[in-house]
Amino acid sequence: MDTNASPSSKLADLVERIVHSYHAHPQLHHLDSTFLPSRDRAIEITELLRKIIFPGFFDEQRLTSDTVHHHAGDLLHQTHDLLYEQIRQALRYDLNRTQGNGKGDDCDDCDTQAQKVTFQFLERIPEIRRMLSLDVQAAFDGDPAAANYDETVFCYPGIDAIFIHRVAHELWKLDVPLLARIISEYSHNQTGIDIHPGATIDESFFLDHGTGVVIGETTEIGKRVKVYQGVTLGALSTKGGQVWRGRKRHPTIEDDVTIYGGAIILGGNTIIGQGSTIGGSVFLTQSVPAYHTVSMKLSELKITAARKPKNKAKATEAPSQANDDSGFEI
Predict the structure, then answer these.
(1) Which of 190, 152, 214 is nearest to 43 (CA)?
(2) Which one in 18, 110, 288, 297 has a CA-CA gap of 20 to 30 Å to 325?
(3) Is 186 in contact with 42 (CB distance < 8 Å)?
(4) 3-class DSSP state for residue 86?
(5) DSSP category for residue 241
């Protein structure tokens, strides 16, 4: 680039170089495409659904039993219109991606299918609410720090994550995977909890704290399961890459299992039996029978007194054991 050129000339040259890089790296652009779901609209849909599912919690105005019917109807109409358009975009996009040659552009049935899928999803809202009511109950019952149900809904990232997962999972089951992934990654960004929309999670699920939890696509989780922060339910190996697509790669967790912080459980053949407890920091690649406990053997904990600093007055010396109120034996 000519260092003596004017700013406008430098910018014009830079534009040329950037546009050239678009064509050099096609993985990073989506040019000349008519149909593509919108991340912003997907997030907007999620927030509308949050208001429908948790009425009165996240609304700008106070709701009453007299006004909630009109309010729910208005939100449902907004959600329908936005969701239909995004499902329409996603279905046509998927056809163009998988079959090429403008198949999605010329798909006469896509709009009809999008309308059908939209209503199928919206009809699942009462069941999503039923499942979430049990999740909220599990969070309250399982955490003595919870003062009331409202606190769990307002404040618990685990409830936020499972709400969005239950929404995304329904879209996943209705074969709108890209839209489901966009919504689930919105949750990941907001909460630090990564749940693939393909994961199957039964009722009364409680993520305590939740930060750093990873739940893979083919994970199956039963009823009344409690998972603490930093847990990974992952694949045993991803070296094969796309060869593993469509296979059962992630664990099965049966009913009434508790998994403590930092545990890593891997593999599609790994089954954690009903009522079992997995201790913190366990690394597990084998199945566990029902009603068993798995824990790490603790390493020896060693605590030693610091060296006394040289040339210091006695007043600055480390306190003796007799004066130490830390509770440790030194």
Answers:
(1) 190
(2) 297
(3) yes
(4) helix
(5) G
Helices (H), the chain: 7-24, 39-53, 68-99, 110-122, 125-142, 149-155, 157-173, 177-191
Per this entry, what is the length of the chain?
A: 330
Q: Nearest to residue 135, comparing CAs of 122, 154, 152?
A: 152
Nearest to 263 by CA among 292, 238, 234, 237: 234
Which tokens is 57 given?
């919690």
Q: φ, ψ for residue 180 (rounded to 5)?
A: -60, -40
DSSP 8-state symbol, 139: H
pLDDT for 328 beyond 80? no
The first and second tokens of residue 249, run together, are: 């790669």
Sheet containing 252-253: give its strands across: 200-201, 220-221, 252-253, 271-272
Q: Answer whether 219's CB lies under 8 Å from 251's CB.
A: yes
Report the amino acid identity of residue 206. F
Q: Which two tokens stand for residue 325?
A: 């109120």
| Section 282-307 average pLDDT | 90
- Inter-residue long-range contacts of 188-196, CB under 8 Å, 24+ positions, other chains counted: 190/157, 190/160, 191/157, 191/158, 191/160, 191/161, 192/157, 193/157, 193/158, 193/161, 195/161, 195/162, 195/165
The residue among 172, 179, 222, 219 whose CA lies nearest residue 197 is 172
CA separation for the pair 325, 139 (Å, rounded): 36
Position 120, amino acid: Q
Mean pLDDT for all residues in the chain: 89
